Amino acid sequence: MKPELLDSVEWESVVQSIDGELGNGITRALLGDRTPIVITDGDLRNVYLIPISWSSIIIDAPPEGFEYHLVGKQLGVMTRDRFRLSLQVLPDLVKLTTRVLVVSQKAAEAFTYGRSILKESVVWIAEDLKRGQRVLVLNEDNECLGIAALSIDSEKLERLSGDKLVGKNLVDIGWFIRRLG
Amino acid sequence: MSNKELREKAKNIANEHGYLQYMIERYLALWGEHETMQFLEACERPIPTAIRINTLRAEQDIVISRLNKKGVTTEKIPWLDHGFYADFEGHSTPGAFLEHMLGYYYVQGVPSMTTVKILNPQPGETVFDLAAAPGGKTTHIAQHMKNEGMVVAIEQDRKRLASLESNILRCNATNTIVMRGDAKKIGELNIQPDRILLDAPCSGEGLLPIDPSRKTSKTIADVRYCATREDEMLDAAVSALAPGGTLVYSTCSIAPEENEYVVDTILRRHPEMTVSPISINFGSPGYPEPYGVSLHESLRLARRFLPHLHNTEGFFICKLTKEEDT
Lengths: 181, 326
Prior knowledge:
The structure holds 2 protein chains of 2 kinds.
Chain A: E1 4-5, H1 8-22, H2 26-31, E2 34-41, E3 44-51, H3 55-59, E4 67-71, E5 73-78, E6 83-85, H4 90-94, E7 100-103, H5 105-111, E8 117-118, E9 122-125, E10 134-138, E11 144-150, E12 165-172, H6 175-180
Parallel strand pairs in A: 7-10
Antiparallel strand pairs in A: 1-2, 2-3, 3-5, 5-6, 7-9, 8-12, 10-11, 11-12
Chain B: H1 3-17, H2 21-42, E1 50-53, H3 60-69, E2 73-76, E3 83-87, H4 98-101, E4 105-107, H5 110-119, E5 126-130, H6 136-144, E6 150-155, H7 158-171, E7 176-180, E8 195-199, H8 214-217, H9 220-240, E9 246-251, H10 260-269, E10 273-275, E11 284-285, E12 303-305, H11 307-310, E13 315-322
Parallel strand pairs in B: 5-6, 5-8, 6-7, 8-9
Antiparallel strand pairs in B: 1-3, 1-4, 2-3, 9-13, 10-13, 11-12, 12-13
Helix pairs in contact in B: 1-2, 5-6, 9-10
């Protein structure tokens, strides 16, 4: 696996995906003074942000018998149908986006076990969020636990009964534990 | 004690404690009977759990306070800036805590944390971590470097790469490059690192308190095989290291064959390398004369962790420095 520079078309699609879901300018802020590169692994294209000074080292093919697996900061993964944000950048996003859903302590724990979010667990939700929208799921200490897809417009939340689904778990930090068994 | 007497005694002790005889013979030769029995008893006791607070994700005082509120008792490890003994008794595993998932701490052995403290990587440097999985030391190095500079983590085992990558993401090490490859061939990367950590794959003879199966799972031939591989890896690391650079060699084995013998061979082959003193106060000195074999006197400057003396797993750490003019 050899890192490649990301072409401008592909990078633009990443920007549209992140900014479209979490707000304009978010990708630019995540990028900072780094440059994006990609490592292809089968159908997955892993996007990393590296210091510009690394470019000359990284882009050269590694010696025979060596392959790159992770380089710098992982921004996310491009699959065939969409871009998925990396768990590594979630804490950065807390400071950058207002598209968040805060859940109770009990629900926070359940979320890290892969559960989705019910109305009764919602402590606070940002206004003007639409059904299907991606949101950061935070606990009451403002710590990001993962990402959910809203199953209802935020302004209609009050109409739901407590046991109804509000957010489908897309990814959560329990993955770090579940992945390793 | 004659050789015959030693073998007979070793056989009896080995049978009684469930060890292979060759292991006890070596312990008796190294330490004598009294200390050998202390060692065997210590290997039956659990090792205290230790954690490293990951300051790349959180402030130390806040994490400790949160854990204490959850009923986890903590005690600072004197020579480690971010290391704590942590008693999670009565709770689920340390890895299931929210603070762990958030990357606020890493469950890590005291000797492993100590290797990075001794390596002392600095922001802006280039550092190699060889045989890096599962990433405890890699993420600790990044933490020392405040995510500035470059850590090249090399791991050959494809399965173990998953844990290495997962821990790097969780702990937010952003100055790290993970490469799959053979650490014995790092010279081909054409990078001269300022520092190298080689915590070499070993026979695991220091892990007896954690893994009782080790009492019978490895023969002396296995130990010799590991020693050969360790020599090759250390040789490659020495060759790749920048002039004036620092190399820390460690294993979780108590076998002199995998430790002092390996370093002694390297010192003979590479006169540009010297064993450096370790300024931190922990453990006990290395063995310059194990089994009556005279090795380089400077091996006394290496350090050992031993279960019966330090209440940790067994471990060996040696700090080496390369001459400037090489």
